[in-house]
Fold this sequence. Notes:
By secondary structure, this protein is of the alpha/beta class.
Amino acid sequence: MIKILLVEDDIEFAGLIVDFLHHRSITCEICDDPFRALVLDLKQYDLVLLDLGLPGMDGLEVCKKMRQKSAIPIIISSARGSVGDKVLGLQIGADDYLPKPYDPDELYARIISLLRRVAGEMEKQGTLRDFIVDKNARDVYYKQEPLYLTEAEFEVLSSLVKHFGSVVSKEQLLGDSLAISSECGNSLEMIISKIRQKIRLFSLKKHIVSLRGRGYRLVE
Length: 220
């Protein structure tokens, strides 16, 4: 289910939005304090719906600070009709700007459209919530930390990211990783073991699952 962080100090209005989206299988968590919103773990949400008229801190500043620490999709929703606010909001990292008052159906459509677009971009880039493939650097980032992979490790993990959730056979991984044979005769099993060790520096969770006689699968 889609989960949204709704940063809005008008609790009555926020309640109406929450009820509307709930009937469309979207859950919302309301936060009326911009300072609290900035210390929340944004990884637990799929999208932020952000009002500009917040107490104690302008919504544009909240947007800027959120974007500095996260790539989460952000939709600004505001009664402020200034073109300058809209332009600045988009420049500092908002993905969309929806002026109030608006039709809730339009809000829903924009949420779904933005999430669909982001999902498509992530698929093209080989990006998951925890794993990001950097083809230029020939490395994979885990929770924004570089793993410093060898070429063979990069090729194997990139293939697993590309086929996230699916079983990838040993034959396919070997076909996708031409560098394995050149790395001092290291086997695929050894490469997988080294990748796991590097991920384990940041997480004890077992992300690469071995399936006897079938291959490997990457999970989050």
